[in-house]
Amino acid sequence: MKETYKTNIPSADEIADMADSGEDISRFFTNKGKMKYPAQRISMDFPADMLKELDDIATELNLSRQAVIVAYLRHALDQHYMAQKYRRS
């Protein structure tokens, strides 16, 4: 039988139980993380041929259509901000 690696780090549920009992759990948090805001659901209409293109790309990249749209939109926004910065200088 394969041995599993056991750590002394408690699970999230165990940390929650410790907090509920009044124990100091600050040692489990580094405050080095970045806050991610929750996603908001929106509705958009796309032409059928564009959806076909997005689906083809998603299949090629083994991603969901949503992931492709988000990635491409992030890329477009980054380019927009870089162009603005370039125009100002």
UniProtKB/TrEMBL annotation:
Domain of life from the UniProt record: Bacteria
Protein name: CopG family transcriptional regulator
